[in-house]
Amino acid sequence: MTTTTAAAAEAPKNPFTLVYAGAIAKNEPGKVNIHPVTYPLNGLDIVANVYTPAHYNPQQRYPAVVVAHPNGGVKEQVAGLYAQRLAEQGFITIAADAAYQGGSGGQPRSTDKPQFRVEDIHGMADFITRFAGVDPQRLGLLGICGGGGYALSAAKSDKRFKSIATLSMFNSGRVRRNGFADSQLASVQQRLQQASDARAAQAAGGKIVYAGDADMSDAQIAALPFEMYRQGYEYYWRSHAHPNSTFKYTSSSLLDLMRWDATDQIALLEQPLLMVAGTAADSLYMTEDAFAKATGAKHKELFKIEGATHIETYWVPKYVDAAMGKLAPFYSQTL
Predict the structure, then answer these.
(1) Which pLDDT tens digit goes with each residue over 289-311?
(2) Helices marked H in the chain
(3) How far apart are CA 275 and CA 326, in angstroms?
């Protein structure tokens, strides 16, 4: 049994339903602990996990990091892994399920609008800066995959975040608009019409149309044209599957996604910026594009993990270690 398959097999046994290797199975004095929390955001209940460092003392003051999960992901997967690893380095961290997704409230389910995802990040900041022991003047932000694009967007205006990092950043707007690797430019108008029709049907009380939902066979997964999607299906549907995690999203969300872009007004981002991505990731172009456009960042660094693909930065131990080797000192220095 591989490490990833083992992680998924252990999921039902983990009391916090965490599916990553090395996940906390019980809270013990003197160690990193996990605290499931629920808080309101714009009339919805948001569920999150807060991780506290070893020997946590609520009377002390700690730096904190907000972690935004990938598209289709939930807090129990890669976002939880990095939140736990950062807590091991002395940070209080929070990973929440996006509104309308995972265990959080909101109807229709799997609505995936950029304005909601950005608001989720502001909401995590609202909550964690009031958590016992957190120093609100030392708040960082980590966005993973789609959460990385939304993190860039949130931090442009939310100056509570003193520094921002992204891991395998995915510009959801650009990909939904242009296709992956800009492969669907010719069909933009046609797809906008489909999204408009889905919105009309939804408004009329008809069936909610979803995109991206498919229980694919291994052969179908292997035939996908982009490695990120092949490995993504393997990660989300096989090795690190979680019952709250899904690739699907409402087709009407595309009205909002296709007119949005993670790099819009990115020059407003003046905080220190670290962008991490694998050299073998076919999504690398998105990180490089955003990094070049982030001209307002006082200090910025692009760190490429040699040999890593997009999804491999989520779980392969040597690549996670490489990312953490940059993230931990970055937050220590900037917070």
Answers:
(1) 999 999 999 899 999 999 999 99
(2) 3-10, 78-88, 114-128, 146-157, 172-178, 188-203, 218-222, 227-234, 254-257, 284-293, 317-334
(3) 10
